[in-house]
TrEMBL record:
<feature type="transmembrane region" description="Helical">
    <location>
        <begin position="353"/>
        <end position="374"/>
    </location>
</feature>
<feature type="transmembrane region" description="Helical">
    <location>
        <begin position="228"/>
        <end position="247"/>
    </location>
</feature>
<dbReference type="GO" id="GO:0015209">
    <property type="term" value="F:cytosine transmembrane transporter activity"/>
</dbReference>
<feature type="transmembrane region" description="Helical">
    <location>
        <begin position="110"/>
        <end position="133"/>
    </location>
</feature>
<dbReference type="GO" id="GO:0005886">
    <property type="term" value="C:plasma membrane"/>
</dbReference>
<feature type="transmembrane region" description="Helical">
    <location>
        <begin position="311"/>
        <end position="332"/>
    </location>
</feature>
<keyword id="KW-0812">Transmembrane</keyword>
<feature type="transmembrane region" description="Helical">
    <location>
        <begin position="153"/>
        <end position="171"/>
    </location>
</feature>
<dbReference type="InterPro" id="IPR030191">
    <property type="entry name" value="CodB"/>
</dbReference>
<keyword id="KW-1133">Transmembrane helix</keyword>
<feature type="transmembrane region" description="Helical">
    <location>
        <begin position="413"/>
        <end position="436"/>
    </location>
</feature>
<feature type="transmembrane region" description="Helical">
    <location>
        <begin position="183"/>
        <end position="203"/>
    </location>
</feature>
<protein>
    <recommendedName>
        <fullName>Purine-cytosine permease</fullName>
    </recommendedName>
</protein>
<feature type="transmembrane region" description="Helical">
    <location>
        <begin position="268"/>
        <end position="291"/>
    </location>
</feature>
<keyword id="KW-0472">Membrane</keyword>
<feature type="transmembrane region" description="Helical">
    <location>
        <begin position="442"/>
        <end position="462"/>
    </location>
</feature>
<feature type="transmembrane region" description="Helical">
    <location>
        <begin position="380"/>
        <end position="401"/>
    </location>
</feature>
Amino acid sequence: MSQVNIESDQIEEMAGGEFEREPVPQSKLKGWKSFLGMYAGEHAAGTEFMIGPLFLTAGVSAFDLIVGLLFGNLLAVLSWRFLTAEIAVKNRLTLYFQLEKICGKKLVTAYNLANGILFCFLAGSMITVSATAVGIPFDMEMPKLSDTMPNGITWIIIVIAIGAVISLIASKGYDTVSKAANWMSPVIVLAFVACGVVALTQLEVTSFSDFWNIWGEGSEPFPGQIKFTFWHVVIWSWFANGAMHVGMSDLSVFRFAKKASSGWTTAAGMYVGHYMAWIAAALLYAVYLKTPEALSFLNNGEAPPVAPGPLAHNAIGVFGIIAVVLAGWTTANPTIYRAGLAFQAIIPKASTFWVTIIAGTIATIAGLFPAFAMKLLGFVALYGFILAPVGAVIVFEHFFAEKLGITKNYAEIAGIKVNNAVLFAWAISFGLFYFISVQFDVFLSFVTLPAWLLSGVLFLAFSKMIQKKGS
């Protein structure tokens, strides 16, 4: 889920460091192979070590998990191909510049602030993941699934040390991050494959029916977790990267694509990372659940801890520890860098070094609290829910504005800093469906699509009214 494994000469461009305020010229366009490598690497990372086991804690059945992920990831690929990539190759602008044209500089500033903070929390959860591996030689007590606060001084010291190293490396620039990531990503993918194979052996799986029976008909969710059905799996996996596809964040990447068909390359990330890697990580947890330690937790009515470090170490030894550290690193590092870029857009006079250090400090503080990692399913759902409706504004303007006689890029043409059509559309759709989620206990991912659709429709309606009044 981190944005890594791109050739080093493309990194600064795709991060927005070149052609930031102009369309990408024809001479700089990239073929589909550039995007294939990127997406295959970026979606087999630290988050996968957490998400796979968390599906088991939600009591999924074999059908719900295996078939649900198949369809959910397909919907994500289709969103990238027919929405994100389609719009990106038409306009060839970064998300931020395109938003500025539509909604004005002040609203883009608010978006950058929200985006930067959410990036920091995601990076913090990956520092937590790496800490579970680094803590093994120190016999550190692992955080439990229900833990919110730091559980000891050893945990605090390790998290701060990891956060400091990651922040300093991220502050050196994206080129440094990418060179290391290009080496690490294949190792991480290999580790997921090895973990899956070893776990199948430990579970004594000799046939497909044995594999299917690992999840069987499902079970009751662990204490403190919600029950995942087929539709939970489908919708959650569709919107796990909602901010990137329907939220249009990857406009900044696909603006370099020669053709919109490059959007199909996202399938490499969805089916290597969000299918193979999630299931492999779930298998590691299935092995752990048969141990006396895990059974004692369950017998006491507690959820056994989900600590990626010990799970991978149990399967493939020291290589597992290294893989988890690298996986957390390759997610947290570029995420902190991108958070720094978002903050720099708000305080442009600040140096890249210092805004990245600020982002890293926030991420490290977040990493001290295990709840961000242990509740990753919920956090990722919230992340997509907040940012996706903003992408709807771009999508609906692109496909419907001319048909309805609405002026495109209205904030730029009218010279306004806040386009109220965007502000009201997002606020109403977010507020209404968040209220529904909380009041009626509806899983947040279930209301992401309705919120996205409503945001787009309201944007068109408000734009028609405001522009008519303005004229």
